[in-house]
Amino acid sequence: MRLALFGRLWILANxxxxxxxxxxTYQVISVSNAGTIAGTVKWSGAVPHxxxxxxxxxxxxxxxxxxxxTDLERLIIGPDGGVANTVVYLKNISTGKPLSAPEQxxxxxxxxxxxxxxxxRVPEKTELSMQSSxxxxxxxxxxxAATYNLPFPFANRVSSRTMSxxxxxxxxxxxxxxxxxxxxxxxxxPYYAVTDESGRFELSDVPPGTYQxxxxxxxxxxxxxxxxxxxxxxxxVQRPLFSEPxxxxxxxxxxxxxxxxxDFVISNK
Length: 269
Hints:
The chain is mainly β.
């Protein structure tokens, strides 16, 4: 399975679909006359039917409202058409402000058998802190630029791991809660943003210049199911299998002390 994963990552990098395929060595400089890039990611056309997934384990914890199914959170469109959880980043920037990320995207909670937040943004060589608010066994399984399998048998105990390598990391639960899914960007520079519920983003303190700006979305199509194992019961279970991530790319010029606006429109086509 690991060989297949690395083969998939090699293919994605070489066809330009992996967000870190062209990452350069980043250098921190004193940024003067910086500009700002702001904009939106919005949906166009009919909203696709998004199937829910059955809650098959620990319903007293995972399903307190007795809904029996859960939203997989793969496509969140606001009232004005804004698409949340889209990662927008500069592809070809090598110098700029210091690398940092908001604390709320460097801490992962497992609550009501959901990952909060759904999209993580962790600077390379810094720690991701993790905990579970649920009184059940969760096991975070990571694949990609980080490979961990971390059990959380006790509620509210924090565990941390350093994310050493920039890249994309997929998170799943190996504790039988097969619907739990999240994505983590281990970022090599600070010019990454995650759209809010209105689809808005902003990149601040950008050195003047011309860049390629990319909007990345994890994808929303349920492509089938894959077999995995519940580490507690040692039984085979079926988890949802999703389509590949989607990307859109544009050119943007940042002028000194000015703001630039870039809008992305995405659809089901």
